[in-house]
Amino acid sequence: MEAIRGQLVFFLENNVSAFIKSWRQKAFISESDIHKEEVNKNGLKMYELVKGMLENSLSDDDFRELAYKVAFERAEANINIGDFVYNVNSGRSEIIKWVISSGLPIEKLHPLIDDISAIFDQFSYYVVKKYTEIKEEQLQEKILYIDQTHKERLTILGQMSSSFVHEFRNPLTAVLGFAKLIKSEYPDIKYMDIIEHELNQLNSRITQFLHVSKKELMNGERESHSLYELFNELLEFLYPSIVDGDVTIVSNMKSDIRVYANKDELRQVFLNIILNSIDALQQVRYKRKINIDCHAVDGKVEIMISNNGPVIPKERMDLIFEPFFTTKELGTGIGLYICKKIIEKHDGEINCISDHHVTTFFIKLPLLIPEETA
């Protein structure tokens, strides 16, 4: 067998130019390929690696070095990796054809042909694997760049909107003040309740936008609050919306669970999630239900607000806590974003899972109360 190997190496050495020319005629090389001049060189190096295998002098380092070189060139040229695989298979076919035409006994050549084919398979594997790694790294870099650009645009948008609403709030505050004075001095004037209510709604919207821009946060003092009492007050306030939405709410709250928090901020979080749940349940024809559960685990209070409404698709699930993302016709897309910021401000976490049976918002908050408030 050693003699056959030597004769085959001698044959290949004497026909290298003809092989490269024949393979080059079949290979697919794009004119836009910035490394097209390297293709012939790589084909020649592969030819040398086959000879090295036949001489039992093939180096694994040399083999990987060529594979990684080709992978980087294919990625940099931005050429379809399928073209590379086609060219490798063409090279395999050509060299096997030349081996068979060497005139050596075919039965002696079969194991060598198998070895040659295995080299090409392994070479393709290394190149495609490294090419995939390079492309994945490039993709992650692009995603990072897009995310950074997106954040920068949001920052600019937040700065613009905050400047606008700050300018808008000054006259609004004055109007609210004078409306209260008019109502106090002339309590019988018609429609003053409606005017005051709408002004307060507008002021609430402005506060939400200021939350998003981070220019203004509710900075009220944190105190010890009973979640049981907070939810009871909230559900009493929401009673008209619950009845109007034909929703059943089941609350399993323990009266002894307390948190150290800003009550108004937590109220805004729970109010937003429950109202969103009521809204989502309008797509369900019967047995509309919201479950509120709460329990303490390892120094944390876990609150779960679930509804049996429609599933939130995965592509939307990744975006629901992003600012300005909304599926509602008249939505602002800042409600859940504000909820997330408030919970994180309280050193907590908020997440959501959804399937075709139930959608649940999970909220974790610190359970322990600081010593000075105990």
UniProtKB/TrEMBL annotation:
Residues covered by the Histidine kinase domain: 163-369
InterPro entries for the chain: HATPase_C_sf, HATPase_dom, His_kinase_dom, HisK_dim/P_dom, HisK_dim/P_sf, Histidine_kinase_N, Sig_transdc_His_kin-like_C
Primary enzyme class: transferase
Classification via PROSITE patterns: HIS_KIN (PS50109)
GO MF annotations in UniProt: kinase activity
EC number(s) from the headed UniProt entry: 2.7.13.3
Swiss-Prot/TrEMBL keywords: ATP-binding, Kinase, Nucleotide-binding, Phosphoprotein, Transferase, Two-component regulatory system
Catalytic activity: ATP + protein L-histidine = ADP + protein N-phospho-L-histidine
Name the UniProt record assigns to this protein: histidine kinase
Lineage: Bacteria, Bacillati, Bacillota, Bacilli, Bacillales
